[in-house]
Amino acid sequence: MLVGIDVGGTYTDAVLLDAGKVIRQIKVASEHGQVLASILTALDEILQGIETQCIERVALSTTLVTNAIVQGKLDPVGLFIMPGPGADWRGRLAAEPLVLSGYVDHRGRERQEIALDEVKQTCKKMAGVKLFAVSGKFAVRNPAQEQKVAGILAAAMQPLHIACGSTVSGNLNFIRRTNSAYYNAAVWQRFQDFADAAAAALAERGVQAPILILKADGGTLPLAKARELPVESIFTGPAASVLGVMGLCPPAKPAVSLDIGGTTTDIALWKGGAPLMDAKGAAINGYLTAVRTFRLHSIGLGGDSWLRRDGDRLLIGPERKGSAMALGGAEPTVTDALIVAGLSDFGDRGLAEAAIQRLVFPGKSLQETAQVIIDQAAEIVANAVREMLAIEAAAPVYKVEDIVRPELLRPELLIGVGGGAAGLTPLIAEKFKLAWQVPPLAMVANALGAALARPTLHISLRADTAAGEYTVPELSLRLPLNDRRYSIQQAVKQAALHLQEMAAAAGITADEIETTFGEEFNLVRGFSTVGKIVHVGVQIKPGIIAGLIDAAATGGAGT
Amino acid sequence: MSNAKAKPLGLVFFPAFDWAISPTHPEREERLLFTRDQVLEEGLLDLPQIREYKPRLASIADLERVHIGVPDIASLITDAHRVSAGGAITAAESVLRGETAKAFALVRPPGHHAMRVVHGTRGFCTVNIEAVMIESLRRKYGLRRVAIVDTDVHHGDGTQDIYYHDPDTLFISFHQDGRTLYPGSGFPNEAGSPAALMSTVNIPLPPGTTDQGLHAVLDELVLPMLADFQPDLIVNSAGQDNHYSDPLANMAVTAQGYARLAEKLRADVAVLEGGYSIEDALPYVNVGIILAMAGLDYRRVLEPDLDRAPVQSAATTAYIGKLIADWQGKWANREQLRRSALAAAGNSWKRERDIYYDDSQIMEHQRESIHYCPHCPGYMAISTESSGSRTGDKSAFAVVLQQESCLVCRERGKDALIKAKRQRDHQYFVLQDKKEDSCGRI
């Protein structure tokens, strides 16, 4: 049996799966600021009467790291950077760094050495600091300087953790890698405490199953590996929902999925059966990181969005004033309008009618007013979808072929999950003349996504045959290469081997490996070819460990 | 001025990673690879002061607003040319729509050696992307006065050719002296045909010119000329091959020199031209220009091997000083010079030239005649013959009618074309009618 738990800001959802079927699902109020307590409340409820030795895996999606960063509950970190010459980094880093001399260039050549004395001097100012982050410009091309500084810190400071920019992300973008490394160090201790407590609490309950932590890119990591990369577990709630869609009704056609929750709606785009990823990384607290995420567009509209009138105008959200009046809330909400319009059937209908009565337009009935409200709500979401599709179509591309023959995303299906999905999805689909689907269990897609999310890892490999070497930054590898005709195919094969080793060390099976990008350039000097640059990315294919049986048997769909 | 509310720099980055003239040609796939790496690593595309745009495809009509292709422009270009010309238009339109303060089209292939008549590719260029951009803007936004400052190390002979008769376009090119470098032109005496005399300004600089010489020319000549001309739009043909590490030229400018130039010039739109030190110069020069145009601090953008940048010799400094003084004198007298040239020309002005297409190994012989009119800009007739093309020798006779050509000149131009067709001395007969915004064979 599989357990998935998603701790959100308002609710904690949990599901229990057995042989491809959801046998239990629960929703409890999250205990404010108490992630572990929320998990245990949900766990105890969902495991009632279940033999704990039957549990094969417990996957957790939590707001722990997100909240720590947003609320500034961060430990002091010694942040060392080697920015070299270039653009000004000031104002772009999440913490004040200590700047070291030394840098490498875009081909990974060391152009100025690290000044060892300078590092040692700086260490003296850091007495008592146990957490460090080290980040150099172009360290993904050559991690040696980061390694050297980390080595000195390890010897001199008895650190608890040192995060290096090039290991938290293999992508180019010094600012984002630096912020990722900093946050990784700043939340490290908090995450260790959580991991220790979670492991102990599960052991206490007799659950022997491995614990997995969801990442922002929709993959999971075994707890031991997640301890190294806590920053990867930001923003997992929306990612869990996207995974849930994959479990409930993976779209075969280009699609748009909506997770319509209480306060927000998260929109994702699907192509080739997979959600689109954000190539750059997540932004948190106003700073940019290299943390991989799904490409999501979030708007302030959900079932609990507050309804009020401003003269003739109807305003919807983005504030939430509590739950629907039909459920005992104090202010009218979108959910109340859905109930009055007959599109949702729960709570106290009389209270919902009273809510909409407050907003009734002159000359319109209660029903008509409810229709106007939900149409306006659907239009808000539809506009956000249009905007996201327009941004996708306008995304810069760097090849002639991609301009002349663009692969436009033309969605053929709209999928809705989350509490507000059943009522709103058909109305939004109507605006695009799209087929739509609201799968059963749409309300707990997030917990389901966590329960089913596959463990994933990704690495990149860049070979420079003229320099006679290749680099795998995520593994801090820089190895000789003596093959002038090294191809993308060889690079992918080599990268896959490294990924398998990495996976084995983390206790992950790497059976399905896919290529995320591949590019190859000849290096020409004068008028002759002197070598090649081959750059590839590989990952364990994200997705779900097993499909659900009869997932689409019930629920709603239409055209 | 509030920075938060300042408009961003529009950036069209189009490295054409799947396009090359030939596998080992300097204009090949990898040219902007290291620039992309540097731009991404610096996180420039994340800055609120920079907004990236996807280039649009220029239409054949966009290209024919400028060019007369023989046999036609469509058969001489690849899709990449339509993207780079379209990228320049996209960049400029972001400025004219008011979305951006300035824009930089960091695109390839380049265009400043492409002339009005096109038989093939010369100096890596087939269509003149700046001219295509400018004529598109003139059509759509009604711009009139445009200044082009060509800072490529090679003389922008294509742009010069296209605007040689246009008094509303000030073309300033400084470059390594044509006696020492391709295309071997760009001397001060090439200053425009009589009605447009002194709207072409060539400043040939000696090999070894550094930031010092370049900024002397900029401060003492180019900027005052721009102030006098009062253009509606300033375009920078932003070649980067004046860099000390460029393998195809012999100048000694640095990334700082280029960035400061971009800052002082305050061009509305910059368009990348040449620059073939793809690893040692372009990453730094491009980052410097982007930062400077976006109003950001570029002072720390330094090449790792900056200590090998040469120092300018005293002789070079003195030579440049004299060049500046000569030009200042002529510029002060420009109205007088133009009047006398026009008076000397009478009703028409002619020139006859050979034009070599190095990339296509084509030789063109061209005769141009400008027919003046007291009421309008008149019309132009061009006779062109080429040899050496793999598809055989070609010839064409073309008439260009200006937007403001009067009815009499329009008729005369058309008559000249019909007459030429009757004589059957050429294979193709083309009318480029700027008023009707059309270009086609008759």
Largest sheet: number of strands, sense, barrel closure of chain A: 7 strands, mixed
Helix segment tally of chain B: 11
Using the CA coordinates, give the radius of gyration of chain B: 21 Å
Indicate the percent of residues in helices of chain B: 25-40%
The total strand number of chain B stands at 16
Topology pattern of chain B, helix = H, strand = E: EHEHEHEEHEHEEHEHEHHHEEEEHEE
Structural class of chain A: alpha+beta
What's this model, at a glance?
Chain A has 16 helices and 30 strands.
Tell me what you see in this structure.
The complex is a heterodimer of chains A (about 550) and B (about 450). Chain A has about 550 residues and is an alpha+beta fold. Chain A has four domains: about 1-75 and about 190-245, Nucleotidyltransferase, domain 5; about 80-185; about 300-440, no CATH class; about 460-540, no CATH class. Chain A has 16 helices and 30 strands. In chain A, the strands form eight sheets. In chain A, strands 13, 14, 15, 20, 23, 24 and 30 form a seven-stranded mixed sheet that branches. A six-stranded mixed sheet of chain A has the order 3-2-1-4-11-12, with helices on both faces. In chain A, α3 packs parallel to α4 (about 145-155). The longest helix of chain A has 28 residues, at about 365-395. By secondary structure, chain B is α/β, with parallel strands linked by helices. Chain B has helices spanning about 35-40, 60-65, 80-95, 130-140, 155-160, 210-230, 255-265, 280-295, 315-330, 335-345, 405-425, and strands at about 10-15, 50-55, 70, 100-105, 115-120, 145-150, 170-175, 200-205, 235-240, 270, 350-355, 360-370, 380-385, 395-400, 430-435, 440. In chain B, α3 (about 80-95) packs across α4 (about 130-140), α6 runs parallel beside α9 (about 315-330) and α7 (about 255-265) packs parallel to α8. Chains A and B meet through α6, α13, β28 and β29 of A and β1, α1, α3 and α8 of B.
